[in-house]
């Protein structure tokens, strides 16, 4: 008998996301799952559970609900203060996003508000966001800094992320995004030097990944290459904000440096997409930001042709996508871009996990994986994006524990 300290029973459909018998979602009907110390130890049909598993712990009867792996959000900016609701309203009446970026407004405005906020304030804001991620079925997030933009303030944001990880069952994968935009009031060459010489070496113990935004109003191709090359030599995994607002070299740099992810990619060319696929990079698509900035459809067909894995992310941030909901991002990707429900499900689980080097442990349910699940009041996993803008998550399990809001 297999010993377990958590079990979940009677899932109408349990999507393992491990392809089986022609089903890309690898679903089990009337499924069950058992876990010990946060990892799955058994998974199968409910009628076989009792003969194979001894349970000493919590039992969750899902009563026919749909169970999927806890969602994985591969692109979020969860540590910031302040609101930019007025900029959202301006854009709705026709002002372009690029025009809103100045020394006073746009990202610079969030940088100012975030620098002025003390650590407990930022932690409380981030914790509220973590609760909203969990409430919407997400159990793993990639979490970027990038609103401090100097040594002390970026250290403060990394500290907030470290403390957050200790206070929430949400898995937090920290990314250093000192190369978000050049900060106001400092010579940009000096800032790039400080990134390369001071911040990148200092922050290596605190961040798994380094990210850079490669295009105006952020960094040039030359600057991005220098920053990410240094990051790679220090052992960071790489991510690149690339070709979101205009064509550019961001995707080429991501491919050349074998970045784990190239994000946004609205303006990536077919040749760039083939290069990314060859490099083993994941395309992390951000429908929320695309939607509120009225961006063009990313080249989804070229990505399909190149079999470039496509992840779907919330891109939670105060400027273009103030949402912790992956189901909503999945709906947008279907409605706005013509992605299929299966594509967006894979995008918010398996492919997102791959971009975070969590293949096989997050975004799927199998023996040895994290016991992370979202339980939803939907008929099938494919129906999740159909409920546009409505949270159908009944419960979230993280590490074999049913989450309760804190
Ligand atoms: Zn971003």
What does this structure look like?
The mean pLDDT is 97. The longest helix is centred in the first third of the chain and has 17 residues, at 119-135. By secondary structure, the chain is of the alpha/beta class. The chain contains 14 helices and 16 strands. It has 2 domains: 2-69 and 364-402, Urease, subunit C, domain 1 (Roll), CATH 2.30.40; 71-355, TIM Barrel. It has helices at 46-52, 85-92, 107-116, 119-135, 151-167, 188-203, 221-233, 250-256, 270-279, 287-292, 300-305, 326-337, 341-347, 350-355, and strands spanning 2-15, 27-36, 39-45, 53-61, 66-69, 71-76, 138-144, 171-179, 209-214, 237-242, 261-264, 282-285, 310-312, 373-376, 393-398, 401-402. Strands 1, 2, 3, 4, 5, 14, 15 and 16 form an 8-stranded mixed β-sheet that branches. The radius of gyration is 21 Å and the shape is globular. Strand 15 (393-398) and strand 16 form a beta hairpin. Residues 75, 77, 241, 315, 317 line the site of zinc ion (ZN). Zinc ion is lined by residues 75, 77, 241, 315, 317.
């Amino acid at each position: 008998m297999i010993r377990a300290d958590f079990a979940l029973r009677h899932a109408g459909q349990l999507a393992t996301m491990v392809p089986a018998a022609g089903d890309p979602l690898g679903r089990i009907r009337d499924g069950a799952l058992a876990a010990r110390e946060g990892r799955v130890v058994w998974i199968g049909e409910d009628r076989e559970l009792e003969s194979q598993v001894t349970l000493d712990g919590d039992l969750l009867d899902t009563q026919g609900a749909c169970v999927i792996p806890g969602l994985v959000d591969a692109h979020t900016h969860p540590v910031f203060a302040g609101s930019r609701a007025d900029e959202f309203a301006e854009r709705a009446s026709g002002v372009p996003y690029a025009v809103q970026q100045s020394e006073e407004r746009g990202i610079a405005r969030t940088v100012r508000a975030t620098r002025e906020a003390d650590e407990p304030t930022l932690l409380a804001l981030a914790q509220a966001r973590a609760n909203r991620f969990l409430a919407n079925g997400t159990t793993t997030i990639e979490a970027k800094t990038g609103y401090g933009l100097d040594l002390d303030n970026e250290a403060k944001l990394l500290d907030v992320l470290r403390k957050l990880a200790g206070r929430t069952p949400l898995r937090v994968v920290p990314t250093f995004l000192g190369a978000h935009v050049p900060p106001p009031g400092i010579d940009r060459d000096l800032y790039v030097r400080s990134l390369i010489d001071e911040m990148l070496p200092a922050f290596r113990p605190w961040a798994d990944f380094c990210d850079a935004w490669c295009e105006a109003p952020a960094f040039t191709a030359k600057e991005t290459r220098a920053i990410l090359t240094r990051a790679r030599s220090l052992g960071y995994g790489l991510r690149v904000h690339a070709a979101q607002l205009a064509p550019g070299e961001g995707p080429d740099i991501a491919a050349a440096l074998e970045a784990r992810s190239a994000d946004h990619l609205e303006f990536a060319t077919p040749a760039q997409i083939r290069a990314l696929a060859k490099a083993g990079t994941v395309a992390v698509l951000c429908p929320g930001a695309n939607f509120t900035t009225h961006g063009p459809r990313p080249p989804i067909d070229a990505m399909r042709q190149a079999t470039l894995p496509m992840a779907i992310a919330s891109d939670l941030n105060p400027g273009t996508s103030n949402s912790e909901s992956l189901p909503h991002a999945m709906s947008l990707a279907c409605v706005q871009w013509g992605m299929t429900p299966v594509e967006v499900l894979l995008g918010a689980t398996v492919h997102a996990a791959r971009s975070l080097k969590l293949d096989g442990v997050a975004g799927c349910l199998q023996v040895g994986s994290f016991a992370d699940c979202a339980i939803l009041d939907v008929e099938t996993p494919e129906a999740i994006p159909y409920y546009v803008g409505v949270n159908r998550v009944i419960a979230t399990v993280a590490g074999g524990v049913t989450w309760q809001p804190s």
